[in-house]
Fold each of these.
Amino acid sequence: MREPRSTVSAPAPDTDVAAADGKPVRGKKPGGSQARKFAKETQLGRVRRARRMNRALALAFPNAHCELDFTTPLELAVATILSAQCTDVRVNQTTPALFARYRSARDYAEADRVELEEYIRPTGFYRNKTTSLIGLGQALTEQYEGVLPHTLDELVRLPGIGRKTANVILGNAFDVPGITVDTHFGRLVRRWGWTTEEDPVKVEHAVGELIERKEWTMLSHRVIFHGRRVCHARKPACGACVLANDCPSFGAGPTDPATAAALIKGPEAEHLLELVGR
Ligand code: SF4
C-alpha cells in the first residue's frame, strides 16, 4: 500500500482531530501530523477537501446504493422504518413476505396488529414498529390517497418517519437530493473534520455547505459504504484507505498496509486494495 502522499508520521496519541471550526473533536485522539496538517484549514480549503474525498469515494464505490430492497416508495418507507436498530440484511430477509402480504397503505392501515407484529418481529422493537406502520398506513390513506408525499415537510409529519427516513425516501424513491445522517455518516464526517456537530440535523446542514446539492444522495451512500467496509468505528483500516491523504484521523486505526487490508470488508475489497496500490 502506498503511504499518503503527504508527510505522515505515526499517529500521536495525544493529538486531537482538527474540526471544521478549528476546535478539536471531542473524544477523538488520532491523527498526529496528519491532523495538524488540517488544523488551520479555511472553509474554502475544507470545501475542496470534502469534494475531493467525495470524488475518491465515488471511485471507490461506483455501485454505492441504498442497501434496503424495495420496489415502490411505500416499500422503501416501510423498510426504512424497520431498519431502526436493525441491520439492512435482516430487514431484507424480512420484507419479501411482508411486502407480499401488505401491498398498499390501506393494507397497513387495516392490518391485524398481532399478525403484522409476527411478520416484522425479526427486526426488533416490533411493537413500536407495528404502531408506526399502522399509523403510517392510516395517515397516507386519510391524507394522501395512499400515496407518499414528495416533500420533507410532509414526510416528517407522518408516523414513524423522521428526518433521516424522509431523506432516504426523497433521495432514493423521488430523486430529490437528501443527506442521510445515520450513525456511520455522523461518525465519519466528524472523523474527517467536516463538522464537530453531534446533532444529526446540524450535521446535515454542515455537510450540505461543503458538498454540491446534486451529490447529496450518492454521498450519503458512499459514506455509509465506507463506514461499513473500511472506516470501522473501533478499528478503521487507515493503512488501506483511499481517503488517507485527506483524513485528519489517519492513524486512528492500523497504518500498516497488510494489517489494514485484512480489516476491509465486503465484495469491493479487491477493488479498494487495487486503488491504494496493493
Ligand atoms: S479509515 Fe480512512 S477515513 Fe477512516 S480514519 Fe482511517 S484514514 Fe480516515
Amino acid sequence: MRKARVAASSVKFFALLLSIVFASSAQAAVVILYHHVSSSTPKSTSISPAHFEAQMDYLARNDFKVVPLLELTETLRKGEPLPDKTVAITFDDSYASVYESAFPRLKKRGWPFTFFVNTDSIGTSKLFVSWDQLREMAKHGVTIANHTTQHNHLPRRKKDESIVQWRVRIASEINQAQTKIEQEIGTAPMIMAYPFGEYDIDVQQIAKKLGYIAFGQQSGALYEKVDLQSVPRFPFGGSFTELDDFIMKVNTKPLPTRSVSFYRDKNTEQKNLIVKAGDKPWLVLELDNAALLKKINCFATGQGAITVEVIDNKLWAQAKQPLNPGRTRYNCTAYAGEKGRFYWYTQQWLVTDRKGEWTYGD
Ligand SMILES: [Zn+2]
C-alpha cells in the first residue's frame, strides 16, 4: 500500500516535471515587419532610424539570432519545431528608405533580411527602390520576395467580376510579380506577403495552390502547426516604435492552437474572415494545453478587453461592440510562465460596410 502511494506520488512528480519542461521548451521564432525606416515618410508606416537602431541593439545585446526568413520557412515546411530567441526581419512595399537607411545598418551587423516588393512600383519615383538597388542588396544576401504587382486588396472582388475572373486576376498579380523578380534578380523564393496583410479563405487557397508560404500582418510568433498561408508577423511603425513594446513582442511565444474556427453566432459556423459592419463574430480556439484556457485574455482593435468564455474545453472570444468597417483584430494572450513572456494569437477580420461594400482605404 505504502509502496503504491510512493509510486503514485513519483508519477505525479514526474508528470509535474514533464509539464515544467514542456512549458519552458515552447519554442518561439518571431518575424518582424517594417515599411519605411525614415523620419520624413508617413508616420503610420514609418519607424525613425534611431528607434530602428535601438530595436536592433536590443536583439544584439540579448543574444537573439537573426536568421534568413527562408530558414524559418524551411523549418515550417518540414513541420519541425522552431528555434527559440530567433528573429527574421522583413520589409514590405519597395520603399527607397529600406535601401538608404535599413540596408546599410543591417549590412554592418551582417544580418540577413527579406524585402517583399510590389513590382509595379519599383523605379517609378524617388519613394521607391530601383532594380539596380535591389540587385545590389541581393548580392549582399538580402532575399527579394513577392508582394504582388499592384498592391491591391486581394480579397476584394471588383464590381461585375465573377469569382472565376477574380481568381484568375489574383493568381496573375502574384505570378507576374514572381516572374519579374526572377527576371531581374535571377531567383525568387516561393514566399509572398499579402498587401495590407489582407487575406481570406479564398485568397489563402489561391496562394496554397500556387505553392507559396504567405505572410500576413497579424501579430504572433511562429508555430510549427501554423497555417502556411497566414503566417503571422509583428508590424512595427506608427504608434508601435517604442522599445518596451518591441521587447514584449520579440519575446512572445505562439499560443499552441489545435484548431481555429469562426462563428456568426453560437450556433452558426462561418467559414470566411470577411464580416459586415455591425457583426460581432466569435473566434473559437481549441488549445493543445487546456490548462491555458482560463488564463487567456482577449482584446479587440479599439475596444480593449472583449468577452471570453470557456465552453467544452474551447475558448470563445467575441467583441463587445459591433465591428466597424476596416481591418479589425482580436488579440488573445496568456502569461507564459517566464518573466516577460506571453503566449499570443491574433485573428484578423476584414469588415465591409453593412451592405457588403468595401468602404475603407489603405
Ligand atoms: Zn504592402
